[in-house]
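agent> fetching stored inputs for the 2-acetamido-2-deoxy-beta-D-glucopyranose docking request
agent> found them:
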Amino acid sequence: MFLKIAPITIFFSFVVVAFMDPISAGKPHIINFRSPNLYPESVSWDPSAQHFVVGSLRHRTLHSVSDAAIVDTLVFDPNLPPNSTILGVTVDNYRRRLLAAVNSIPPLPAFSALAAYDLRSPDRRRLFLTPLRDPAADSAPDKDHPVANDVTVDFSGNAFVTNSAGNFIWKVTPDGEASVFSASPAFTAHPVDRDQKYSFCGINGVVYVSKGYLLAVQTNTGKMFKVNAEDGTARTVLLNKDLTFADGIAVRSDGVVVVVSHQKAYFIKSDDSWSEGVVFDETALEAERFATSVAVGGGDRVYVLYGHVDEGQWGNGVRETFSIVEIESEKEQKEDTVWIYVLIGLGFAYFCVWRFQMRQLVTNMNKKTA
Ligand SMILES: *[C@@H]1O[C@H](CO)[C@@H](O)[C@H](O)[C@H]1NC(C)=O
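agent> prediction call returned; pasting C-alpha cells
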C-alpha cells in the first residue's frame, strides 16, 4: 500500500508546490486609495503595522494606507510651517519612529527639516524637528535653497537625508542632531545637461543597506553612489547604463535594488557589494501617473507610488485617487516559470520510473507464483 501511495503523493506534491507559488503571487496587487488633493511624493512600508505610509503635498500630514486601501491620518503637525510638504518618509521599525523630510516649496518661504514622530504614542507625538541647512547657501544668497528630498535610517537610528539642490547628504542622530555628512566630490563629478528636465534635481533617492553603506541615486545624471555610512566617503557605482531621471530607491531582502523614475523601474543587482551593478530588467511605468517612490512591502513585493506630483505641484490639482501598485520584473517571472516546468518534469519522470518498476515487480511476482 505504502509503495503505491508514496510516488503518487510525491508526484502531486511536486505539482502543487510548482503551482502554489504563482497562484499565491497572483496578479500584481493594486491599491487605489482615495484622499483628495494628497499628491503624495513618497511611500514607505511599516512592517509591524503592515501598512504603507505616505507623505503629502502642502498638507503637513502623514497617512497610512492599508492593503484594502483604507487611509488613516497618522500625523497632522500644525507646528510645521503652513502648507509645507513631506517629500520623504521612512519607518524606523526598531525605534518605532516615523521620519519625515519636510520642505516648503516655492513660493512659500524656504524651509527644510527632518521631523521624527513616535509610533508608540497614541497621538504620534513629535520627538524632534531639526532644521536642515546648507552652510554654502546660508553664506551665498544666490545659491539654491536646500531641498530635503529622501530619508533612510540605519540600525542605530541615524537618519540620512539627501539634499537634491546642494548634492550632499545630511546625517541626523537619534536625538535630532544634524550635520552635513557626505558632500563627496563623486556627487558633482558627472556632467549635468542644464537643458534637460529636472536638471535642478541632484542626489535624490537614498536607502540604507544593512552591510554599512547607503545607496543613493542622482536624478540629473542617472548615476548611483555607494556611500560609506560611517565616514561618508562615496564612489560612483559602475552600472551598464544610466538610470535616467532616477528618483526613488528600495532594496529587496534578496539584495536586488529597484530604482524608479516617472518612466520606468530599473531592477539592479550586484555581486560585489555595489562596486559594480547590472540593470538586469526594466519595467515600464505609466508616465502620466508620475511615479516618484518605491517601497518593498509584505512578502518582499515591490510597489511604486503613483502620486501625480507633477500635476499637484502647482497647487491647483483636484485629484481624489492615488495608487500604490505592485511591479514585477518580467525576466524574474520567466525564470520562475522555467523552474515550475523543471519541477513538473522531474515529478513526472519520477512517476514513470516508479510505474516501470512496479510493472517489473508485478511481472516478477507473477513469474514466481506461476
Ligand atoms: C496655504 O494654502 C491655502 C490653500 O491652498 C491658501 O489659501 C493659503 O494662502 C496658503 N498659505 C500660505 C502661507 O501660503
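agent> quick read of the result: Helices lie at 2-25, 135-139, 309-312, 330-369.
agent> awaiting further instructions
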